[in-house]
Amino acid sequence: MNNILFAFGLTLFAGLSTGIGSILAFYTKQTNKKFLSGALGFSAGVMIYVSMIEIFVKARDSLEAVYGASKGYWITTISFFAGIAVIALIDKFVPNSENPHEMRDVKDMKEKDVSDPALLRMGLFSALAIAIHNFPEGLATFIGAIQDPALGISIAIAIAIHNIPEGIAVSVPIYFSTGDRKKAFKYSFLSGLSEPIGAIVGYFILMNIFTDAMFGIVFASVAGIMVYISLDELLPTAEKYGEHHIAIYGLIGGMGVMALSLLLTS
User: Fold this and answer.
1) Rounded to an integer, what distance in angstroms lies between the CA atom of residue 252 and that of residue 40?
2) H-only helix segments in the chain
């Protein structure tokens, strides 16, 4: 039970970091693009490294123990790409104009007039899109933390960093359209709640059928989801916010820190 509560707490922290983005939008004069670019690259590095080096390997070990080496490896690989397919389908149903990963700059808040209903719609769609995206991310954080608390912390921090610009993406257009900071913060904050909800729903659905085989399939799918998020969302957003090399340095730094933490805890 303590492990479950710890995993849920990590998932809640990761999800509600959208509120940090909202606070940054209201209380800073402009977005620190270089810092955010490096942080997003770092988050991508952590998620890619931990997915390919740790999560995929643990999923393969679990499935090979049940199905044997050859069949277990096949199921792990199929599950990995199934996770990618699920998150790609979610992305496909989000209109490009309301995509929450389009760059938003804090200073834009002072350059546009309020009372634009199209911007309110954009902000609400961004909140809905982020809520949908965060659902599988919450499951990823939760399952990772239950299996390995240190791994769960790494995933939670990476996802929390990636949620900060999503908070900006929700807050800025809603503030543009309403002039109401409280409303903008509320929707930004609520969009992150789907992450712990994803953890709870996933747990109750899976808890009765959570065998070694099911764990391996879910874990491999989580690895696929995290790699897709990194390549499709984090790195492109990092590129938009800053220089190419800053994003890459952040990526390599995230991989290095993740590698070191795994070595120290092995």
Assistant:
1) 11
2) 2-16, 18-27, 33-49, 56-67, 69-92, 117-147, 149-178, 181-192, 194-206, 212-229, 235-241, 244-265
How far is Cα 49 from Cα 43, in angstroms, rounded to an integer? 10
Whole-number pLDDT of residue 133: 67
Give 107's DSSP letter.
G
CA distances in angstroms from 155 to 43, 54, 96, 221, listed in the order given = 9, 11, 27, 15
Closest by Cα among 218, 198, 222 to 140: 222
**All residues at 6 or more sequence positions from 32 whose CB lies less than 8 Å from its CB, including other chains:** none
Interval 54-111: pLDDT, tens: 889 989 999 999 999 999 999 999 999 999 998 888 777 765 544 444 445 545 444 4
Residue entry with tokens 């994803």 = 198
Q: How many CB atoms lie within 10 A of CB 3?
A: 12
Question: Which residue, 133, 242, 183, 229, is CA-closest to 25?
Answer: 183
- Which letter does DSSP use for residue 28 in this model? S
Planar angle of CA 231, 237, 239, nearest 5 degrees: 95
Contacts with 182 (C-beta within 8 Å, 6 or more apart), sequence order: none
